[in-house]
Write a structure and sequence with these properties.
Elements: H1 3-27, E1 58-68, E2 81-92, E3 98-105, E4 127-130, E5 133-134, E6 138-142, E7 159-168, E8 173-183, E9 191-196, E10 208-216, E11 226-229, E12 234-236, E13 239-247, E14 255-260, H2 262-277, H3 282-296, E15 297-299, E16 307-309, H4 311-327, H5 332-344, H6 347-353, H7 368-383, H8 390-403, H9 440-444, H10 458-491
Parallel strand pairs: 1-10
Antiparallel strand pairs: 1-2, 2-8, 3-7, 4-5, 4-8, 6-7, 9-14, 10-13, 11-14, 12-13, 15-16
Helix pairs in contact: 2-3, 3-4, 4-5, 5-7
């Protein structure tokens, strides 16, 4: 292969790798909820592609959204519904009146598999008023943004929209009000929440001048009750509130809230109260520490050793683990659990093994925070560990050995294999024997001899080399003398 072909092949391979990477990124994009009212689809798109809004001069002046996450029903078989009320003030900023079929998503636009994207409105609950007057709705369908279906969760691969006719006079406000109930997609989880998406509001003319969004939960909210909440919120009693001004909504503006479920939160409140009354009760302290850890570290074990960390509760988890150690200083399990949470909450470890995984092996073993983890492990091993903790021990040690170069932590008493060095062949002994002296007379009478099947020794190799060189010298001398003799005869 010539150099030009090699360069062309290398270029082709690089192009294929880049294409595969981009394809992978696009295929793993997170599908999310769409909730704002939107202009009708572009007529040039129709039913042949995902929704794209038509051009309009109607602007969303303001929107007010109230999302109510109700208390758990007394009948466990009764489905939990999230209630939503939203009001949109629209104004035609153009020069001519516009009449259009406004649409509102009843199911999500994407059909990927992430739980965060679960979104389905109970169609029978959907009500719309225009300037205080109820208007009839029809259902239209557009293809999803992704072609894969999601029937596992009961969602149709096509996107369902509620459509209603609206007339927008020039420079006059039109008030659209919707109310509906959504299925709660987190029935089987330890948390609940809602996603409200603003980005579809970008289909209207210009910026949205103001947006006020409130999420009401069934209990008094504290920071530690939040798994996640879009930044910019204010807490007031049971409510989270966002206020946005003069913005063109993008995907970054979408709101997402995940909170501890009502029954789980009440259990936490009760446990904290008991610990406060009995601060030296080890069992209560262990339960509280376990609870804080469960709210802090979310392992993604199918993806190796990656994890995510909730900083709202991580400090409380460390504090609770230290309290358990103080109460039972000679309990190996307590020291191990402290080492474990110190490892997870280490910022350097989080950078390496967190969701945005960095290069492994970048933490030095002499780092003080790592030394504290190792110290607690030493104490845990010296006091002994219970049987039910050994799997967690193996998991933690594997992470530490992967992330910290030069460490090879092995629990005391673990069987170790002593490596057996490979068998080495003894080097041949070289004898100091003198080589025979070659003479021209002998070399001139050398006759061919059969080649031996035995492997030649280094001394024999040297003899043959000298003999070959001597033959060349003798032959060259003979030719030179013969030519010189012929030249002499010619001169005579």
């Amino acid at each position: 292969m010539n150099k030009s072909s090699l360069i062309q092949n290398q270029t082709l391979i690089k192009s294929i790798l880049v294409f595969m990477f981009l394809a992978l990124v696009s295929s793993t994009s997170i599908p999310i909820v769409r909730a704002d009212a939107a202009p009708p689809p572009d007529p040039t798109v129709g039913g042949i592609g995902p929704y794209q809004p038509q051009k309009t001069n109607v602007q969303m002046i303001s929107e007010t959204v109230f999302i109510d996450v109700p208390q758990s029903p007394s009948n466990v078989q009764e489905p939990k519904q999230i209630k939503v009320n939203a009001s949109f003030t629209m104004r035609n900023q153009g020069q001519t009146e516009e009449q259009m079929q406004v649409i509102f998503p009843l199911t999500r636009l994407n059909t990927g598999g992430t739980e965060e994207a679960l979104y389905q409105i109970d169609t029978s609950s959907f009500v719309i008023t225009v300037n205080g007057q109820h208007v009839p709705i029809t259902t239209i369908t557009t293809p999803p943004e992704e072609t894969a279906s999601d029937m596992d969760h009961g969602f149709s691969p096509d996107v369902q929209w509620a459509a209603f006719e609206v007339t927008f006079p020039v420079q006059k406000d039109v008030i659209l009000e919707v109310e509906y109930e959504m299925l709660n997609p987190y029935e089987q989880e330890d948390f609940t929440g809602i996603a409200y998406i603003l980005e579809t509001g970008a289909g209207w003319y210009g910026n949205i001048l103001s947006a006020d969004i409130t999420v009401r939960l069934p209990y008094q909210i504290e920071e530690i009750a939040l798994y996640y909440a879009k930044p910019g919120y204010a807490i007031s009693g049971k409510e989270l509130h966002w206020s946005l001004k003069d913005f063109e909504p993008t995907r970054e503006d979408n709101l997402d809230v995940r909170v501890v479920k009502e029954e789980q939160w009440q259990a936490i409140v009760d446990l904290r109260s008991k610990v406060k009354r009995n601060p030296n009760d080890v069992d209560l302290q262990v339960k509280l520490a376990d609870t804080y850890v469960s709210l802090s570290v979310f392992s993604m074990k199918p993806y190796g050793y990656l994890y995510s960390l909730n900083h709202r509760t991580s400090d409380l988890a460390v504090e609770a683990r230290r309290k358990v150690v103080d109460l039972r200083l000679e309990w190996g399990d307590a020291h191990f659990r402290l080492a474990e949470i110190l490892w997870y909450t280490n910022p350097k470890v989080e950078k390496i093994l967190g969701e945005s995984s960095a290069t492994l092996g970048s933490i030095q073993p002499n780092d003080p925070s790592i030394q504290e983890v190792l110290h607690e492990l030493d104490l845990a091993w010296s006091y002994g560990l219970s049987e039910d903790i050994h799997w967690d021990e193996e998991y933690l040690l594997t992470m530490i050995n992967r992330a910290v170069p030069g460490l090879n932590l092995i629990p005391p008493g673990s069987p170790t294999l002593t490596p057996i060095p490979p068998t080495q062949t003894p080097a041949p002994t070289v004898k100091n024997t003198s080589l025979p002296t070659a003479s021209p007379t002998l070399l001139s009478t050398v006759s061919p001899t059969p080649i031996s099947t035995k492997i030649s020794s280094p001394a024999n190799d040297y003899v043959l080399l000298i003999a070959a060189l001597s033959l060349i010298i003798v032959g060259g001398t003979y030719i030179y003398m013969n030519r010189s003799h012929n030249v002499g005869n010619q001169i005579k």
